[in-house]
Structures are given as C-alpha cells and as structure tokens.
Amino acid sequence: MKPTLFVLAAGMGSRYGGLKQLDGLGPNGETIMDYSIYDAIESGFGKLVFVIRKTFEKDFLEKIASKYVNHIEVEIVFQELTDLPEGFTVHPERVKPWGTNHAVLMGKDVINEPFAVINADDFYGRDAFQKLADFLKGLEGSKNHYCMVGYRLQNTLSESGAVARGVCETDDNDFLKSVVERTHIERKDGVIQYKDAENYWFELPENAPVSMNMWGFTPDYFKYSEEYFIKFLELNQDNLKAEYFIPLMVDHLIANKTADVKVLDTSAKWFGVTYAEDRDSVVAKLQALVDEGAYPTPLWK
Questions:
Q1: What is the pTM of this model?
Q2: 296 inside domain
Q3: What is the pLDDT, as a whole number, of residue 15?
Q4: Which three-class secondary structure string do you get for 152-187?
Q5: What are 14-57's pLDDT values in tens digits?
Q6: CATH number at residue 200
Q7: CA–CA separation, 180 and 204 (whole Å)
Q8: In terms of residue numbers, what domain contains 230?
Q9: Residue 297 included in any domain
Q10: Whole-angstrom Cα distance, residue 78 to residue 91?
Q11: How many structural domains does the chain have?
Q12: Would 299 be classed as within a structural domain?
C-alpha cells in the first residue's frame, strides 16, 4: 500500500499576509504546494488528504484541488474550533486555532495507512519526499515507529530576517530525543546564532537537524493524539492562545517510551515565504529548478 500525504492547509500566513497557499510563484502560476504534491507523487505517495477551513472550501476546490484529481486520489477534511472531545466547549473569547496536532486529528476517519504530514506553504524538495516515502513504505502493519525529516539548519534560513526552528537532539542511532523551539535564529557575522529569552546569543552548528514540520506516522498516532488532547484541554481550558502542536505530542510519546522517531537526514534545501520580502527569492529559486530540468513547465497538464 502506498503512503498518504496529509497537507496542513487550514492556516493563513500571519507574517506574510493573505493566503500563501494560493500565491502563484512558479513560471506558470504554480503554488509551492503544487511542487510538493508533484514531488510526493513522483516519490510514490498514493493519496492526498488536505485539512482546510470550511470557509475556504469553495476556493480550495476550484483553484487547488481540481488540479490534482486526475493524478492522485484526493480527500478533504475540515479543522474547526468546535472540533473538540465530548464534554469540552470553546471558550467564547477563543479565536486562535488549536494547532497542528489538532489539524492532524481531523484525518483519523480517512487515513488507514502510514502517512506523512507537511505544511502547505513550505517547499521541501524531492530528496526529502523520497526519503519519507521509502521509510513509510516499510511501516505498513507496524505501530509506534515514526519518522521526521531533519533538515540541515543552514538549508532553512531566510534571507529576509530571523526564523523560528525546532532544533532537534538525536541519539547515536539518529532517533529523536527532543525538539527545542528556538524562536529567533539568524546568521550573524557569518555564523548561525539564536537569541534566547534574555537576549543572549548562542551559536548553532550549520548542520544541526531542524524540524520543518515534515513527519511520518502510522494510524495508531491518531489514538494517542485523541487521548493526549483531552489532557491538553484540561490543562489549557482558560489559555486562549495555547496550541496543540505536533512536537508537543511527539515529545510526550518519546518521554513515555511509547514510540520512537527516526530522524531522516536530507540534502534538500527548504524554502518558503516567511516574509513578504522572500517572495522574489522563491520565484527565482523555482525558476532555476525548472531551468535545470527538475520540474516540467507547466507542472500540471
């Protein structure tokens, strides 16, 4: 059975503004997501599942999903604030979504095979999808063995400003021990550094593995996520900004020795539109990939 690609497309780009998922950046107006899905199909994924907001459904079906249906099976699920376990209600002042792992939970009724999770507006690169697909194909029928693509930090920086990255600690066998969120990373004086809460700067290795929210799971992950979401809500009922993130769930499973997570090294270079100023650079990078023959143009025929 081929693995499934689960695409997180429910969010909007707060720093960039507007729906990044609809921004045409390729030579023929292709979105970043178009390239991810092309790479996924080429790497052996067999189904696409998108999680979106219900209010985005019409635009999404017309402008995005229609491109893929002749190439791969497509399913759409919805993430809403009101999607909570029995006995819980949304605080009347809450407007913030519940986070990436809540979005993942929305796929539990349509995904029954090993699956990958990616952001809709990040360019991940073919090598990353191939490594992920190859790993997931070996997981059919197994439980509690997951993976994460670990990008080399130097391949994920923005030329327009600081970035936030989940810096990974691994053991000698490349299994994940922890993910520490560093909210301000940039290259200063030729060296990659992060700034801590007290405004002190610390150096980071060029090849430090970082999470770009590219994960691989088996369906048992949904059960663990449902159970832990209840505990999360009990602890955060009155916190209007608390979010149920994938690394929070993964850290919990690793700490409890419930599951292990293999960190897959990739030579791929991540890029995305973190800032509006990044847009021209992304357009140029996509054009260069097309020029060198990595992608056809137009991408979808």
A1: 0.92
A2: no
A3: 39
A4: EHHHCCCCCCCEEEEEEEECCCCEEEEEEEEEEEEE
A5: 334 445 556 789 999 998 999 999 999 999 999 999 998 888 88
A6: 3.90.550.10
A7: 12
A8: 4-291
A9: no
A10: 20
A11: 1
A12: no
